Amino acid sequence: MSAVLLSCSTAVAAPAPLARPSIAIVDVTVVDPEQVHTSMPRTVLVEDRRIVAVVEPRKAVIPEHALRVDGRGRYLMPGLVDLHVHLFNLASKRPPNDWTFPLFVANGVTAVREMSTNADGVKQARRWNDARSRGEIVAPRIIAAGIAVGGASPQAAIDAVDAAADAGADFIKVFSELPQAQWQAVLAEARRRGLPVAGHVPAQVALQATAAAGQHDNEHLMQAVEACSSKESALIAGRAAGGEALSTAQLDADTRQAAQHFDAKRCRAVAAAVAAAGQVQIPTLVLPHTEAEGSAAALANDPRWIYLRADERLRWQRAQATLTADDHALFRERWSALRRIAAIFHRADVVMLAGTDTPMPGVYPGYSLHDELELLVAAGLSPREALRAATSLSAHLPGVDTNSGAIAAGRRADLVLLDADPTRDIRNTRLIRAVVLDGRLLTREALDALLADAARAQAP
Ligand SMILES: [Zn+2]
What we know:
Blueprint: H1 2-8, E1 23-30, E2 42-47, E3 50-55, E4 67-70, E5 75-78, E6 80-85, H2 101-106, E7 109-117, H3 119-133, E8 141-148, H4 154-166, E9 171-174, H5 180-192, E10 197-199, H6 207-213, E11 217-219, H7 224-227, H8 232-241, H9 248-260, H10 264-277, E12 280-282, H11 286-293, H12 296-301, H13 310-321, H14 325-347, H15 367-378, H16 383-389, E13 415-418, E14 432-437, E15 440-443, H17 444-458
Helix pairs in contact: 1-17, 4-5, 6-10, 9-14, 10-14, 11-14, 15-16
This protein binds zinc ion (ZN).
């Protein structure tokens, strides 16, 4: 992979291994998601791993040795962030998903948030970040890593939070199966240890209650279908009465019942409460959308199949093969509720950020973030709001180390150069001309070479 990097730095005389040639992106339209309007063309200078200047082209002082990139007619936006990815396979004990790295980068995803790992995974994430800084791997920066906790009792859950905090987790991840008593214990202990709690709103607790209690973010709009249903109280009471042995089958049946009793008025009230409590939602719309629209045929014919590692192909195929007619009905009903909920939440000003849950079956690393942006726009966000959800707004998440998300002097040089304006049509985020990754330039040719390498690495 370093061959790709070297080949785009050959414009300067043999750089030392750690050197990054300066980059000047000349006369480019800068898309800063936090601004209301797009500015006049600028020249953007990158040195080492920072943006050092954003100036009118005629005022730019471009170092002689800098790599010059023609920005005329092009658009420069901050690197995209996928706030919900899985780089580890703890349950299946398969190797980590570093095969995803070139796909993220080639799609302009320069940072990701790891959603479920352990102490070893936290260390591995740091090693990847260090190797990335040294230019040894082409990879997104891992901006936060969470450790999932559980436990047979509240005390066991507290111990798990302490172990996760000691292991250096950036946040505590909770799952649907966590019983209410353990969830409360986790919330209190995480607060004591200064760590945010993120993840699934547990199945035994109402969405609004978790927002009010301070669960910082909710993934996948978990429990929103229930919260936006006239059946919510009955369903949650039933789960609580059933104790700790909640089956996936029961939760799926509950979700279908909830979706069939969608209540828009109730949903607007829930949305207002979630917005007021400041709970962030990472809806990962691309996942339920893929579930509802995907098929075995689509999987087999997808041109991106060549990038998947062999064990991952097998997992996707198996997941597809075991689906029943009931599963497909659930997927359709859940998606039809979730798309309405996303629109209602957006109108109520709930903060929604971009994540994908990749590599869930059918959810391709990197590519899926562009699908998510499109789905957010379909839910009512403007293209600029969708860009914010995948760039500057990630700073809403505590534990996320971010000094990117804007194009300004001092920010990290994680940038994406586009051939067309993403604020006019969000699909233009796919028209990637170049990526600046941690201050290193990857031209379109270099990105194509990266993808070709990725496919070759997985060839049978
Ligand atoms: Zn996930």
